[in-house]
Amino acid sequence: MPHQPTIHAVAEAAQVSIATVSYALAGKGNMSNATRERVLAVAAELGYAPNRIASALRHRRSHVIGLVNDTISTTPFAGHVLLGANTAASQAGLVVMTMSTNDEPDTEDRDFEILRSYQVDGIIYAKMFHQEITVPPALLKLPSVIVDAAPSTRERPAIVPDEEQIGATATSYLLDHGHRDIVHLGIDANLPSSRGRRKAYESVMRAAGATPRVVHGESNAQGGYDATLRALRDGPATALFCFNDQMGMGAYAAAATLGLDIPRDLSVVGVDNLELVAAALRPGLTTLRLPHYEMGVWAVEELARQMDRDPSPADQFETLAIACPLVERESVARRT
Amino acid sequence: MPHQPTIHAVAEAAQVSIATVSYALAGKGNMSNATRERVLAVAAELGYAPNRIASALRHRRSHVIGLVNDTISTTPFAGHVLLGANTAASQAGLVVMTMSTNDEPDTEDRDFEILRSYQVDGIIYAKMFHQEITVPPALLKLPSVIVDAAPSTRERPAIVPDEEQIGATATSYLLDHGHRDIVHLGIDANLPSSRGRRKAYESVMRAAGATPRVVHGESNAQGGYDATLRALRDGPATALFCFNDQMGMGAYAAAATLGLDIPRDLSVVGVDNLELVAAALRPGLTTLRLPHYEMGVWAVEELARQMDRDPSPADQFETLAIACPLVERESVARRT
DNA sequence: CTGTTAGCGCTTTCAG
DNA sequence: CTGAAAGCGCTAACAG
Hints:
Chain A is α/β, with parallel strands linked by helices. Chain A has twelve helices and twelve strands. Chain A has helices spanning 7-14, 18-26, 33-46, 52-59, 76-91, 105-117, 163-176, 192-207, 221-234, 245-258, 275-278, 292-308, and strands spanning 64-69, 95-100, 122-133, 144-151, 158-161, 182-187, 213-217, 239-242, 267-272, 286-289, 319-322, 326-327. In chain A, the strands form two sheets. A six-stranded parallel β-sheet of chain A has the order 2-1-3-4-5-11, sandwiched between helices. In chain A, helix 11 links the parallel strand 9 (267-272) and strand 10. In chain A, helix 1 (7-14) packs across helix 3 and helix 2 packs across helix 3. The termini of chain A are far apart. The mean pLDDT of chain A is 92. The interface between A and B is large, with 63 and 64 residues. Strand 2 (95-100) of chain A pairs antiparallel with strand 2 (95-100) of chain B, so a sheet runs across the interface. Chain A binds a DNA duplex through helix 2 and helix 4.
């Protein structure tokens, strides 16, 4: 492949020393404007771009950050984190190196090792759904942040969706639309998401003088279908707050089976805002968007802060809970 | 942050010269096994990992490849390409640097520049749906491959889904199940995918002595809904071959509206295998999977080949069409 | 079998 | 205002 021009080539072509070229490009140093312009022109002419690998070696700053997540597929979540991270990185003059450990812890450690050997300035450690973790020791060797997982210690900053806000917002929204018989389609697993959403649902219901009722199901369409059937069989329900959009999709199918019209006979709220599902359903599914993009952005910004205040070894960090916006579509009707 | 140990530190600790350490780690050179083991042990002890940035500077080989795509979100496609690329890269001792140009051509050029300044050994240029492109000039300056887009020149190798095979497989599958009145729900846009699938559909139908009928709609659920209504109104149809799963989802909704049972009254085949949709629909949607993962894998393998045979400047490359497997679920019934 | 050394491309101090 | 030179961490040719 054609070699890229080096700083030497530019210096020679511009009839100056390499130091001058370096200064001119960095906008530093004192030199005649004429010289500066000439150097810049020559550099542009030759298509010169500094070798950032050499510069990183010198500076001990690569301007590369690593992003490792358990798996980049099946859901658009990872995509949004990545997109957010990439966008923010561009802004900050950084570049992202991605690694996907297929959720194997040894791969994970190897990946941290590799990233470190590339001298990344920091690492974003992202999980694909909100969970509790212990921070991998390798992360403590350099600036790092955690996305969509809550570390059990305060060793590193983290950001997660605000699960209680999700539950509260969804429930209030239905209450505000005049519903009283709102049942929550929850899941069995003991996760921050299931606990938080349920807890907020229950307390908002009680605060409004309504009676909470939770029906459990698998966290997929089939589970939503089954749970909806049970919910409707076992008591009155004019609205469903589903753990996620997939279950909401199942609720639609169950409603169809029962000859119920959404939203006239049954209102539904989901969580996730899976565009592919929520926007495609008829009527569109009102849901709460998980702020993966924003978490990606926050992660690089926080990392950047951590990078240049060169954190004191035993800092204490917060786990931020970030609000999830409601995305209104047509699946909720006002009850009069 | 704690400095990583350098090769000097290891040499000192092991009481040898840095060259010996380098050799020991590389498994090269001649030295006593005792020395080698000791060096290795010391290195492990100190948690030493070679600075790959220094090594890249020396070798003029970074073992980093760049991946730029128009947008990493909304669809799981990009995720699968990335995952494939990452997995194959790990295998090959490479690492991936991702960039997402939000489809802005200037961002794109800047991204190529940045990747080159990081001395990437090659670039994967991925589009998020099959289209025709002219290869960006910046890509010709280094090894590169194109994913999910067909370059109008043969300057670089590319890989795309085999659109005609998709049309042929879907159609034959329905024919084999005894259907004759198969209508194709197509889209208006003039794309390789719409053209190829339609063309194969028509010729397979004719070859079987059946009459092709195409109904157009928007490429989303609403479009599929509308198109299905029209298809069923304007003529006989026992099966639908939909341009994508989203339209298939619309077909389900239309069938429900008309009181038609899938698959008893109407069989449906989609394309994309959007897990979130196809597996969640009731009954599960039979569809063809777009091999994004495999394209990602192929891309790094092809890149690796290109990297070490150091391609002659004016090579001619092929655009590969890769087969898309049928994913059978329950949306197709045998017609007797 | 082991050590010395030049140099990858860049930045920056220090002399001129 | 400009240039020479040291050195970031590593590799590999060469000398011992």
